[in-house]
Amino acid sequence: MFCCHIEHARVDIRLPCLRFLDMDNADVHPRGTLGGGGDPFGFVTIDAPMLRNFVMYIDAAGSTTDYKSFTLREPGLRLLCWRNQFAERVAIDVGNPGCVKVGAIRLTTIYYREMEHCREQMMRMLQGLLPDLPPESVADVARPYLEECSDSEDEDDGEPKDKRLTCDLDALMSRHI
């Protein structure tokens, strides 16, 4: 799915033999709007038992509408790459703890989003990837693999700087947690 605009409140992808899915700039927004901002909209569910590689890639934070809910149920997932798509509710169920071996989660703040939102979504996603850990332990276990940085542009222009929060899933999952 590349650069598509979906004007439905519910998107269910249930394909039992699907092995690879890339959602590049997939915007789910209300009919009659252009997307890219506004209130969170859409319930996206992906349920594909054979899925091995999943990539959610948004070029720029804020360029698509936040999802109301995003659910990913993939018991055999090996690669997860997630960049800049936000959701009020994120549920990831990979079935087997530690099955995801490769990937990264990268969230970027933009004018209307605080870094705290990025941290909250990151922890919800990691809880789904590390279901054997108590939720209160996920942040401590993941901390060495999280990187928070800001744009390095000149600070004198008065513009707010984007900040990024990235989790290196390759390194985190190689610990056999």
Question: How would the blueprint of this fold be written?
Answer:
Elements: E1 5-6, E2 10-13, E3 20-24, E4 27-28, E5 43-47, E6 53-57, E7 67-73, E8 79-83, E9 87-93, E10 102-108, H1 115-129, H2 135-142, E11 146-150, E12 163-168, H3 169-173
Parallel strand pairs: 1-4, 2-5, 3-6, 5-7, 6-8, 7-9, 8-10
Antiparallel strand pairs: 10-12, 11-12
Structural summary, described in words:
It is built from 3 helices and 12 strands; from the N terminus they run ββββββββββααββα. By secondary structure, the chain is an alpha/beta fold. It has one domain. The strands form 3 sheets. A 6-stranded mixed beta sheet has the order 3-6-8-10-12-11. The longest helix has 15 residues. The radius of gyration is 16 Å and the shape is globular. The mean pLDDT is 85.
Write down the overall mean pLDDT: 85
- Cα radius of gyration in angstroms: 16 Å
Count of DSSP H/I helices: 3
Oligomer: single chain
- Order of strands, main sheet, comes to 3-6-8-10-12-11
Question: Can you summarize this structure?
Answer:
The chain has helices at residues 115-129, 135-142, 169-173; strands spanning 5-6, 10-13, 20-24, 27-28, 43-47, 53-57, 67-73, 79-83, 87-93, 102-108, 146-150, 163-168. It is of the alpha/beta class. It has one domain (5-173).
